[in-house]
Design a protein that fits this description.
single chain; alpha+beta; five-stranded antiparallel sheet; 20% helix; PilW; transmembrane; transmembrane helix; N_methyl_site
């Protein structure tokens, strides 16, 4: 006689307990994954914003530092009667219009200029310097090593770079005056100028102060701004990320004007920027040409 082996299954209660434990494990795992994804997205946003700021400051810094520069004539025996030519200029000039010595370059162009609230076709910051050639080695040919803000090498005598904020993009127009985007997700772009009073410099007590474009000291009372009094440029940018963040109500960042801005309120920010990471970047550059005052 053969005996049938005993067989046992799970009860309904055991099955339900197993399913519940499995579901709880999945919920915990999904929650951990979502938190990890949010943290990873925030870190990626912060890294991307820092990279964008580093790139645009490198581009702008190169143009600002070069602004106003002109070719040095290092010949020790240069005759005083030699004609003034574009490629034969004697120096860095603090004059308001550094190219006024060139009658064949109309119109004269200031080395640095700006608009606090530029309208269509205008720019927040405009820069210019001489495009001259130098001898290259080992070929010995004369070439220009200068580039505008877009990396182009224009054939024009003067290289210009002009910057403006347009529809959330920081754009630059090179010597061809065709603006192109440098970086996106720009919430604010502000420029201040470091000016030095010539009278104070002559008196032996030079003073430097920050002003906006409207308060650059005039050449004469009621006249046009004396851009030659500008010795440096401060650039401030506010960039924002792409990743929505579950941030506490009332979270703020400090803008270019030093005030706190609520990142979690559509009353303070556009809907596309609400609950996004915002970072403020600031850098100061000295103009290469402005070494003399008074």
């Amino acid at each position: 006689m053969c005996t049938r082996p005993l067989q046992r299954g799970v009860t309904l209660i055991e099955l339900m307990i197993g399913i519940a434990i499995g579901l709880m494990t999945i919920v915990v795992a999904m929650g951990a994954m979502m938190v990890s994804r949010g943290v990873s997205g925030t870190i990626t946003d912060a890294s991307q914003l820092q990279q964008q700021a580093s790139y645009v400051f490198r581009v702008m810094g190169q143009q600002i530092r070069q602004s106003g520069s002109m070719r040095l004539n290092l010949a020790a025996n240069k005759a005083a009667t030699d004609p003034v030519e574009v490629d034969d200029v004697v120096a860095f000039s603090p004059n308001t219009e550094i190219y006024s010595a060139f009658p064949d370059i109309p119109p004269t162009i200031p080395s640095v200029a700006g608009k606090d609230a530029p309208s269509a076709g205008e720019y927040k910051l405009s820069l210019a310097y001489q495009n001259y050639q130098e001898q290259s080695f080992p070929s010995g040919t004369n070439i220009s090593f200068f580039r505008d803000c877009l990396g182009d090498q224009p054939s024009a005598t003067i290289i210009q770079s002009q910057f403006v904020l347009d529809n959330g993009e920081l754009r630059c127009a090179g010597s061809d005056n065709v603006p192109q985007s440098l970086i996106r997700n720009v919430a604010d772009f502000q420029v201040r100028y470091l000016v030095q009073s010539r009278a104070a410099a002559i008196s032996g007590l030079p003073t430097i102060q920050y002003v906006d474009a409207a308060n650059v000291p005039p050449i004469a009372a009621g006249g046009s701004p004396d851009w030659s009094s500008v010795f440096g440029v401060e650039v401030c940018l506010v960039l924002y990320g792409d990743e929505p963040i579950d941030m506490p109500a009332g979270s703020t960042y400090i803008g270019c004007d030093g005030t706190a801005v609520n990142m979690s309120s559509t009353g303070a920010l556009a809907a596309a920027r609400k609950n996004r990471l915002h970072m403020t970047f600031r850098s100061v550059y000295q103009l290469r040409s402005q070494g003399l005052a008074g």
